[in-house]
């Protein structure tokens, strides 16, 4: 069996374009992968054209060899632009292998460690604590036991309601300007005010697991203030409170905070992750399978994290192929924790427009079936139904 063609297309997900890769073989098996790189999707498409030149004529079963060559032979081994393309390719190659042997990928990875994968959903924090509590209600009613919101005041206050409902995404602009640098002045009362959102949510839903995503907006002193302010409300984790390059500051914060600190979505290899583990910088690791090397890279990272007793909860506000891929990983590793999904009804409907068998998420739980490979293929009409969108902006 040889690779005959590599095709990459952009599919609009309403908040970002997914890059869907299809690898065709001379046996008519087609493997599908996905990556997402916000605001750089066309650059990834160009990179995939060159990756395709390398792959055509090669054996798709030689996944480890392709993984190493695609990582090292380009000379520029690191960085997300390079990692995104090879991640999607790795997922597609494993999809071919699963189809070739007639087995779902979690079986090829050693079999299931758990029968199903718990997920969490995004929720908009809104303009005030009362709106936040109202936003939680439909997710709780749909059976979600865990949610994640954006950092209040920094996110969630200015976007029209219909925009949030259409995208299902919480990363909308707040009253604090997106251009505010982590070293600039913030009033000290900011963190007391943020805490009011979580006090209201905890009073309304005592057993709901709640995480907050900061998108790297704070420096260490303000991150300490945030952790102290939120400590009484028993959050699941505080995500990316510091800029993504600040490993030493993360280590200092993790040592001090009673709430677990989560990060890792912007780490793209085992070599990126290694110093974070050595410094005990995190309580939850979040490397995204579509950016950290696909199945091969994510499983290496998860195994390394296991040696540090660190749970793996991959970043995944992505599309249906990425959600299935992350599900196969989490179902088969011992330190699988939670899977991120946007989780809105609009998002699940969008999945059904893209793949023939969308991920099955009910009562906040993803259940994988025994279909070979990933378990889904691109719908023939997906590119017509969801042509590429144009996305830009700031954090």
Explain what this protein looks like in three dimensions.
- By secondary structure, the protein is an alpha/beta fold.
- It has 14 helices and twelve strands.
- It has helices spanning 41-55, 63-72, 80-101, 105-108, 129-141, 161-167, 190-204, 220-230, 247-256, 270-278, 294-306, 320-332, 345-354, 382-385; strands at 3-12, 17-25, 30-35, 117-123, 146-150, 209-213, 238-239, 261-263, 284-285, 339-340, 360-362, 365-367.
- The strands form two sheets. Strands 4, 5, 6, 7, 8, 9, 10, 11 and 12 form a nine-stranded mixed β-sheet that branches. The protein has a three-stranded antiparallel β-sheet with strand order 1-2-3.
- The termini are far apart.
CATH architecture descriptor text of the largest domain: Alpha-Beta Barrel
Q: Rg to the nearest angstrom?
A: 20 Å
Instruction: Name the CATH homologous superfamily of the largest domain.
Output: Enolase-like C-terminal domain
Number of H- or I-type helical stretches: 14
Poorly predicted runs: 160-168
Number of domains: 2
Largest sheet: 9 strands, mixed
Total E-strand runs: 12
Could you say which structural class the secondary elements and strand pairing correspond to?
A: alpha/beta
The mean pLDDT is: 94
CATH class of the largest domain: Alpha Beta
Sum up the overall morphology in one term.
globular
Strand content: 5-15%
Query: CATH fold name of the largest domain, please?
Result: TIM Barrel
- Helix fraction bin: 25-40%
* First and last CA, distance: 44 Å
**What multimeric state do the chains show?**
single chain
Order of SSEs, N→C? EEEHHHHEHEHHEHEHEHEHHEHEEH
